[in-house]
Amino acid sequence: MVISTQNLTFTFGSQTVVKSLSLQVPEGSIYGFLGPNGAGKTTTIKLLLNLLKTQEGSIHIFEKELQSNRIEILSQIGSLIEQPAIYLHMSGKENLLNRALLLGVGEKRVDEMLDLVHLSPAAHKKAGQYSLGMKQRLGIALALLSDPKLLILDEPTNGLDPNGIIEIRELLVKLTSVYKKTVFISSHLLAEIQKMATHVGIINFGELMFQGSINELEALSKPSVQIETDRSVDAANFLKKNNIDVAEVNDHCVFVPFTSKETMGEINALLNQNGYTVYSINKQQQDLEKLFLAITQHA
Amino acid sequence: MLPFLLCLFVFVGFLLQSNELIKNSGMELWLKFSFPILGVMGLLLMPMLIIFIAYSVNSLEHKADTWKTIFSLPISKWSVYAAKYFYAFFLLFLCLALFVLFTIGFGNFLGLLKPSLKFSEYSVASILAQIYFKFFLASLGILSIQFLLSLLFSDFLKPMGIGFICTIVGGIVAGRDWAYAYLFPYSHPMMAMKAFGQSTKGGDNHPSAMPHFTVEMLTKDTWVSLAVAVAVFVAGYFIVLKKSVK
């Protein structure tokens, strides 16, 4: 395990922001740390970086206790917390050079990082004039500068356009698959994480609601039957009269929980025989987005 | 910038009324030339200067929101804190050194422009350096306090407000010659100023003898200033160590 926490708890005054969190982040994974705004994601990340003092529980990174091995551990972590921290009066390259000086990294690496995040053309422009996406990319370049084994990114795709998001995603996948890095990435958007994460942790009100591989999460979601008819509301009422559960109705479709293929056929026949035109009927995996909502709203 | 401007003003003033000043001896000229600057320094400028220096060193990180990044780098908190402090320390030293340089420079330049002013008769360099060095020592206590305030508060108003009030109190306390004024760091620059004033009085009694000034470097208030500087600096480190970075 690259990151493992035991019963991590953190309170701001009387408010418990993180409740006995036990994270397990395996090596080489992209760990998607999900939760709605204000769920305790950033607080957890700050605890992982020793920016906030651990009050209860323990944190081990690279199998070492964080508090007593702070510098050794931090030297192998690259991080981006909330908005990227950039000196706006300096150019993008100066920002990187400044950090390189602190980390003892050569100038060659700075140019490589600028190329990697496609900022070379704007390298000498003041960072204050960068667009939000460019600042975000510069922040990622800063995080990658020391060639860390573990990358901790707090909502890194905030403010990026779709192209930028895809680029970051590809970059992270490459980092883990080719360079064997571990990425811990937080987000409030499941759809975004779903496309790259290998492992997922879902947090709400400071509590871990789910933790496991992305396949385990998908297994949790129950499939449903989507039926497209000419009169969906009438069809739904008709199915209910015939003792068939209806999960959801909208103007175009009726959703029924999937039980077996045979039931699907029976529903189809039933509707057809009673004057409803069925345009399409198919089995569907429940959207992870809905599952995410279901998990986070239960608390 | 600041030392340059101030010295320039005094320089221009002297240039305009040079005729009246011809009577003065070299030493008196130098005193009259450097005193306006020193006076302003001791009263108001010095503490304000320190407040600004301490603020600017820290506000850079507050503004860019880079504290969290700096403290998540593999650098010990001690290094970050000490490096920041010594940078402020260095800025203050540089600023005072520039005051010395510009005062001497402009004085000699004035002597060249108006040979009738006998600036070259007397060398003020060593005494001036001593005075400013005493200023420097006297201001370290304030520097430590202001540095810590600026580090803890991200806005300008709190360190500025506290510093300003303390400066005024310090000025009053030192001006009134209160017996315990030496215990209050914000009155140290003014007291350093007074130490100089007293020694000049001794000089005025024998103008013809061209007296040799000595600035008593390590007075009681200077010791207090140094002690406060060290104590607050060390305390600040423990606060930084304990403090969570938001």
Question: Summed up, what is this model?
Answer:
Chain A contains 11 helices and 15 strands. Chain A is of the alpha/beta class and about 300 residues long. Chain A starts with a strand and ends with a helix.
Average pLDDT metric of chain A = 85
Biggest pleated sheet of chain B: none
Class from helix and strand fractions of chain A: alpha/beta
Give the strand tally of chain A: 15
Distance N terminus to C terminus of chain B? 35 Å
Query: What does the average pLDDT of chain B come to?
Result: 76
Overall form of chain B: elongated
- Structural class, from helix and strand content of chain B? mainly alpha
Strand percent estimate of chain A: 25-35%
> In angstroms, what is the radius of gyration of chain A?
24 Å
Unreliable sequence segments of chain A = none
Q: Helices and strands of chain A, in N-to-C order?
A: EEEEHEEHEHHHEHEHEEHEHEEHEH
Chain pair with largest interface: A-B, 24 and 17 residues
Helix count of chain B? 9
The largest β sheet of chain A comes out as: 6 strands, mixed
General description of the model:
- Chain A has 299 residues and is an alpha/beta fold.
- Helix content of chain A is 37%, strand content 27%.
- Chain A has 2 domains: 3-219, 3-Layer(aba) Sandwich (Rossmann fold), CATH 3.40.50.300; 223-286, Peptidase S8 propeptide/proteinase inhibitor I9 (Alpha-Beta Plaits, 2-Layer Sandwich), CATH 3.30.70.80.
- In chain A, the strands form 3 sheets. Chain A has a 6-stranded mixed beta sheet with strand order 7-8-9-4-10-11, sandwiched between helices. In chain A, strands 1, 2, 3, 5 and 6 form a 5-stranded antiparallel beta sheet that branches. In chain A, strands 13-14-12-15 form a 4-stranded antiparallel beta sheet, with helices on one face.
- Chain A starts with a strand and ends with a helix.
- In chain B, 76% of the residues lie in helices and 0% in strands.
- Chain B has helices spanning 2-16, 18-21, 26-64, 67-71, 77-113, 125-152, 157-175, 188-204, 220-242.
- The two termini of chain B are 35 Å apart.
- The chains are: A alpha/beta (299), B mainly alpha (246).
- At the A-B interface, α2 and α3 of A face α3 and α4 of B.
